[in-house]
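debug: dumping io for the single-chain case to check the tokenizer round-trip. Nothing else runs in this session.
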Amino acid sequence: MNTVKPMYGWETINWTKVQRNVFKLQKRIYRASERGDVKAVRKLQRLLTNSRDAKLLAVRNVTQDNRGKNTAGVDGVKRLRNKQKLNLAESLTLNDKAQPTRRVWIPKPGKDEKRPLGIPTMRERAKQALVKLALEPEWEAKFEPNSYGFRPGRSAHDAIAAIFNDINQKDKYVLDADIEKCFDQIDHQKLLEKVNTYPKLRRQIKAWLKSGVMDGRELFPTEAGTPQGGVLPLLANIALHGLESLLESHFNRRVANGRKRKVTVIRYADDFVILDTELQVITEAKEVTEAWLKEIGLKLKDSKTRITHTFVKHEGNIGFDFLGFNIRQYPCSAKQSGAVAGTEQKRGFKTIIKPSKEAIERHLKKIDDIIQRNKNSSQEKLISVLNPIIRGWSTYYSTVSSKRDLDKIDSIVFQKLRGWAFFRRSRNQNNTEVISNYWGVNRGLGWKFITPDNKYCLEKHSQTPIKGHIKVKGQRSLFDGDCVYWDKRLSSYPGLKKTTRSLLKRQNGKCNECGLSLTMDDMIETYHRDGNRSKNKLGNLELLHGHCHDIKHIKGIYSRPNN
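debug: decoded output
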């Protein structure tokens, strides 16, 4: 590999300046795309992909910011040293060549099936990250408002909030759809036509699409589909763009009261739902959708696509599951539904969103597997393994009506832990002694699964506060430059700890190292100023980007006095 010897060190790069320069160009691309100035978009994209700052940032994104994802491609490279990172950034160029991806099979949650994942080489990951820096702002200005997957600043919670807002006042028919093998079947030619970019970038994207897959020692050609394991799921999102606009224009007709009919489409990656008050409209929407998907080489999966209703049974179905949530309307009085009796606002139903049964079963099975694997482990280790699982799952469902389910799960987990504790008891211990050893009942702490020294305590699902989520506004994007709006959204993002919220407020949503805004898509880490990770008082903590955390630690090591 021919490389140019860099004239500077990785540790000496002014990353604040690098990020600001790249973001300025991205914001200009976004605004040019928003006003439909294609010539300006292409010119700025060329400028970005050729800039040293963008190349450095792309390399950092794939070598430092993807912690825990160090899986090698066909080149066998998992990590790079700082000098190698610089060499890669200096030699990074777009062309019409691409190395094949490595096929990895990962199990589907709760199923015996496995799905394929393509792992690109480190160089290809960096090139894809560079292209994403240029393509993403252009398409963020184009994407439809109810598209939420694979987009910066948007989440599954936004999609669920959009569904709630749409059906809260009206019961509706729903087309709950799933696309069959979406990422493996997208027509390459149709996708390239849709991307519609300048020749050099088009050739590079085509090279990735046609690069092939190495499964073991055998190379398989890729005649359709998009890369799944790289940083370009953006391509799949581009391929599926346009469904919402298509259905809006198809059903854009006047009704009796003079208003236009608006069919609601809410999409998260390849999962989507179509909602309307009339069954005929939903049936017709399904036909239109199937015809549109066929043009790009896709089709609906019959086993996972159905028509249902949010309030009454339709063909034996009522309500639907989406992104791990169960969405349904239940009968109730006008008082319970929040409506005023005797007025047109009276609905007689209440919309309730909660964790789906399948999601609960998967979660309990995962906890059970962890407990079984740790039969001979210490209580301290078991708690350390379970706490992140419990915290993550609970916070994901903390924006909906999940309190009853969380209480029920805690009861089941208690029974599983009770079995674990009695399995470990010695011959001379009775039931009371076993409970005293592993729970804080006799220590005045209640039914807490806690170590005898009170240092490690298992978190309960039900202790997670339930707080509604506010959906992202329409066409808002991280590239619109409204830092106040995005900083405010971050502080109310579901899943953040109370400590993190307090630190965000104190730091005005900025990283204490680089001074740039922290976003929902950043890896945010907590730094202990005195190096003592057990001292968690607010005065000893600060929030940093993951890469800034690395720099802070390096500075701390070199600033320590020699013993």
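debug: round-trip ok. DSSP finds 20 helices and 13 strands in the chain.
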